[in-house]
Write a structure and sequence with these properties.
By secondary structure, this protein is α/β, with parallel strands linked by helices. The protein has helices spanning about 20, 40-45, 55-65, 75-90, 100-125, 135-140, 155-165; strands at about 1-5, 10, 15, 145-150, 180, 200-205, 210-215, 220. The protein has two domains: about 1-25 and about 130-220, no CATH class; about 45-125, no CATH class. The chain has seven helices and eight strands. Helix 6 (about 135-140) packs across helix 7.
């Protein structure tokens, strides 16, 4: 990381928590921001009536029917409960009626719901996109050997690295795993010079909207993080 104003030029590990997304410059509206674990369903209720977010009504109704007041339900607790219930019924081979099958259905559809949330946010962002000036400034300071550890599944940092890091960022290996296809959509290696052998690392511990996992464990990068 190079910060010339303070004379810093050392390898760095940068940690991005939820606040990095909540405070992104593209979210200007006080009621429409990147959702946190604790207010995911509050945000969903605000966005579900927008044209891009109509499919969110299904998730809101399911959460309300299953857990009651969904606006008090943390997103991670909701997802963990679905996983546990689905595994319980599958392991014990208990009646797979409509209600039981709904757990697997909602788990499978959850990435689509997340994508719909960010499509809705994009539709009301003044810039018309999901880019953050702060993430871009951070990406400009990063160099080979630096790492970013992100607890966010959005692609604000991915977009910033694509725009600013050039040959220092290689999405084929930069996520810490091998991306077999689709990675070329997430880096820009145009121009002269060689691609660095020691790519900046972006380690997304909660997954990412631009990832798809193959049955063999390899990864594919979606060209757009908000469509599935």
């Amino acid at each position: 990381m190079r910060l010339s104003k303070i004379g810093l030029n050392k390898t760095a590990n940068v940690i991005l928590g939820a606040g990095a997304s909540r405070g992104a410059s593209c979210f200007k509206s006080a009621w429409a921001q990147s959702p946190l674990d604790t207010d995911f369903f509050d945000q969903l209720d605000r966005l579900k009536n927008l044209p891009e977010g109509r499919c969110l009504t299904e998730l809101a109704e399911f959460a309300r029917d299953e857990f009651g007041a969904s606006n008090e339900l943390p997103m991670e607790a909701f997802y963990t409960q679905l996983e546990s219930l689905n595994e319980f019924y599958e392991t014990l081979k208990i009646d797979r009626g409509p209600r039981v099958r709904a757990y697997r259905t909602q788990l499978d559809r959850f990435p689509t719901y997340l994508a719909a949330v960010f499509r809705s946010l994009r539709s009301i962002c003044p810039s018309g996109g999901l880019d953050c000036d702060f993430h871009h400034l951070l990406a400009k300071t990063l160099h080979t050997g630096d790492s970013v550890i992100s607890f966010n599944y959005d692609c604000l940092m991915d977009e910033a690295l694509h725009a600013e890091a050039r040959k220092s960022w290689d999405a084929r290996v930069g996520y810490g795993t091998s991306a077999t296809t689709g990675a070329q959509e997430w880096h820009d290696h145009s121009g002269k010079g060689r691609v660095s052998r020691n790519s900046i690392k972006l380690l997304k511990v909660h997954g990412s909207l631009n990832w798809v996992r193959n049955p063999d464990g390899s990864s594919i990068g979606r060209s757009s993080p908000i469509f599935s």
